[in-house]
Amino acid sequence: MAVTQALLAQLAQMTLILVLSPLLTGLVRKVKARLQRRRGPPLLQPYRDLRRLLGKEAVVADNASWLFRVAPYFIFAATWVAAALIPTFAANLMFSWLGDLIAITALLGSARFALALAGMDIGTSFGGIGSSREMMIASLAEPAMLMIVFSVALIAGSTQLSTIADYMLSGQVGLRVSLALALVALVIVAVAENGRVPVDNPATHLELTMVHEAMVLEYSAATWR
Amino acid sequence: MIPVDGAALALAAALAAACFVRAFGIVFLGRPRSEVAAQAREADPWSVTAMLGFALLCLLAGIVPGAVIDGIAPVAQAMTGARLPPQLADAWLSIVPVAAGRGSYNGLLVFGFITASILLTVLVVHRLASRGLRRGPAWDCGFPDPAPISQYSAGSFAQPLRRVFGRVAFGATEAVDMPPPGDNRPAVIVRSIADPVWDMVYAPIGRGVGWVADRANVLQFLTIRRYLVFVFAALVVLLLALTLWQ
After folding, report:
1. pLDDT for res A31
2. Which pLDDT score, from 0 to 100, does residue A87 have?
3. Contact residues, B window 67-106, toward A, CB-based 8 Å cutoff
4. What pLDDT was estimated at residue B101?
5. How confident is the model at residue A111 (pLDDT cuts 50, 70, 90)?
6. CB-based contacts of A121: which residues, under 8 Å, 6+ apart?
7. Within chain B, which residues score under 50 in pLDDT?
8. Are the beta carbons of A57 and B7 separated by less than 8 Å?
């Protein structure tokens, strides 16, 4: 019974992340638009985009290899598993002991590796631009990410996210300068990893600032074949 | 010390990932960059199987890391005098370097988890997505260049990394060599990279040896009288040293 309950909690969390993440994208776009005194798209626009993309016919370049087809599934799965290892609404989830923060960083790193390879698959100059820039950003952001992980782990005595969450909730942490600095660093790393404005711009089609957009330029729609 | 080690390891891993993307991407992906490459064929099944065997071993080492850790433990013991606790005894093939509360990793279950997620995604996309698929030329933002040379090369892939790390670590410089008007040469980017270990360690030693050799070279061109004086003086000095020493 306990196992079933734990499994259900885990599945509920994974589904919740999946269902809510387009909403976050919509929220970010909305906030960005409002800050620029625009009205912006509605919050639910990413869901409509997803539905539209699912219904579209996929155009795949002539020389695309199997890697081009497989990479999106792997990237999605690795990111999803990384999200599943993070306790969002319940700590001590069933699979939380599978991997710690280092494993999560590694999963995101593998996803990026596959993305960079997929960007180079078609053999256009844009794909190469995106991949080489992405690997450069990764080589700067990943060490910083692990430094943050270790500075938190040194305080909590564990890299296991559930243990860290328990420790932080226990109230024996107090005021720590290193945690504040880690938070600032995490925000900077998050901006870089999520491809946001000073590093990358998800809404651009200008070569100077394209990183992620350049890598996924040849993808037109979801296809299962 | 641990955070610095971890960050150095992460930097090494990220640079290695960039290196592998570059090596695999430039060699195997993209359009063929030469006539010969365009006619490349897959090797015979035996060669492919041999490579697949190595790939499988890599995958196995990642899925069952406990066996690898236990396997190299005697070497670690011999070299450092310490070793990780035995890992294969843990339940579900987990690896637990220190204690369960400090961090654990289970390669087998993470692999299974990722595989299950991929299968689930494929299933859902299969159910929901359209089946339309069309092959066409690459889009490339509307300006596909038919010349394969417009693709990224190994040098251009490395350029951002070289600009970030190379300038400090290797003294890498770039300059555009622009020919003057009327000159038909193409403009080229001239790169130069220095090896700091060579410049700081080996080159000074080499210069020192050269300096000593230059000074000693004078000894080869003396008169016979001076050689005899040297022999005599050396004998006197040695005998004197022997007397004093006793």
Report:
1. 93
2. 82
3. 94, 100-106
4. 65
5. very high
6. A64, A65, A67, A68, A71, A127, A218, B25, B29, B30
7. none
8. no
Q: Which residues of B touch A67 (CB under 8 A)?
A: 29
Contact yes or no for B117 and A100 at CB 8 A: no
What is the rounded distance in angstroms from the CA atom of residue B60 to the CA atom of residue B107?
A: 9
pLDDT above 80 for A14: yes
The answer to whether A150 contacts B10, with C-beta atoms less than 8 Å apart, is: no
CA triplet A63, A64, A68: central angle to 5 degrees?
A: 165
Contact A136 B11 (CB under 8 A): no
Chain A nearest CA to B112, separation (Å): 10
Q: What's the mean per-residue pLDDT of chain A?
A: 87
Look at residue B236 in the predicted model and tell me its pLDDT.
Answer: 96
- Contacts of A186-191 with CB under 8 Å at 24 or more apart are A186/A148, A188/A144, A189/A141, A189/A144, A189/A145, A189/A148
Q: DSSP for chain B?
A: -HHHHHHHHHHHHHHHHHHHHHHHHHHHSSS-SSHHHHT--PPPHHHHHHHHHHHHHHHHHHH-HHHHHHHHHHHHHHHHS--PPP-TTSGGG-B-SS-TTT--B-HHHHHHHHHHHHHHHHHHHHHHS---EEEE---GGG---S-GGGS--HHHHHHHHIIIIIHHHT--EEEEEPPPTT--PPPEEEEE---HHIIIIIHHHHHHHHHHHHHHHGGGG--HHHHHHHHHHHHHHHHHHHHHH-
Residues B164-207: tens digit of each pLDDT: 888 888 888 888 999 999 989 988 888 888 888 888 999 999 99
- A-contacting residues in B 179-238 (Cβ below 8 Å): none
pLDDT value of residue B71: 87
The ipTM estimated for the assembled molecules is 0.88
Model's pTM, two decimal places?
0.85
Q: Which of A49-53, A152-156, B230-234 has the highest mean pLDDT?
A: B230-234
Query: How close, in Å, is residue A5 to chain B by CA atoms?
Result: 18
What are the structure tokens assigned to B122, written together? 């494929």
* Distance from chain centroid for Cα A157: 26
